[in-house]
């Protein structure tokens, strides 16, 4: 059984094919102008889901990088403060050696005591070091000054760790506990040692000679804390390097899913344009001429 092909059927098929060709051109033009394979989820749901996953991963990586930068800055400030503490204690040790010299006059000892007292106040300033308005030696109690300037004592007892997440399962401690730096013996720590030295040198006679060993103990403790901090800083640097590499690889995966091959899109667009011209040319021959065509 055969079907009769009418002029209206030819016209309808031609218009249908032209419409399909126009849709293909519209999609290619949209890809060329946006640079993306898909511009809405319905274009390719599977690719859209994978793209959303990669974007979510990039957002997480970006947050981890910000955490790592903040944490590294905190640890750098802490290391600089500990370096200054070491310099202060080294200077106090030099002055103590001078003060323990039996040939010193009372005036000389008073001068040494005065300088050590000034260094003690400076040590208190270091203990109250801040970063972005937060005290770095106060544990998690970052809003309250750990060192009391009136009593010249380190009063903070907070021993909580400050940790930042720099990976899905990677948390790094960024703080050094002030109690371990300035009150490691539980009896006033470095401030108590300096107070005892000042009080003794201000008296008529020096009554104790164990100050050097006490100072050496404090200096050794600072070096230990700095070594532990340095190890955590190295770990943070490795985490930052890992995050940089992870960001590059995830961005590459996202690009491979969403970005178009521009050369291929342009080639396909030119092909569709040629198809459209050919279709229009042939369609003009298919359409049956009317009386108007003969009256021109």
UniProtKB/TrEMBL annotation:
Q: Does the keyword Membrane apply?
A: no
Q: Which InterPro entries match?
A: Flagell_FlgL (IPR013384), Flagellin (IPR001492), Flagellin_C (IPR046358), Flagellin_N (IPR001029)
Name of the featured protein? Flagellar hook-associated protein FlgL
Going by the entry's taxonomy, the superkingdom of the source organism is recorded as Bacteria
Q: Which family does it belong to?
A: Belongs to the bacterial flagellin family.
| One GO location term (cellular component) | bacterial-type flagellum hook
Q: Which residues form the Flagellin N-terminal domain?
A: 8-140
**Looking at the keywords, is tRNA processing present?**
no
Task: Write the record's keywords in alphabetical order, separated by commas.
Answer: Bacterial flagellum, Cell projection, Cilium, Flagellum
Question: What is the taxonomic lineage of the source species?
Answer: Bacteria, Bacillati, Bacillota, Bacilli, Bacillales
> Which molecular function terms from Gene Ontology are attached?
structural molecule activity
* Subcellular localization: Bacterial flagellum
Q: Which GO terms describe its biological process?
A: bacterial-type flagellum-dependent cell motility
Flagellin C-terminal domain ranges (all copies)? 214-295
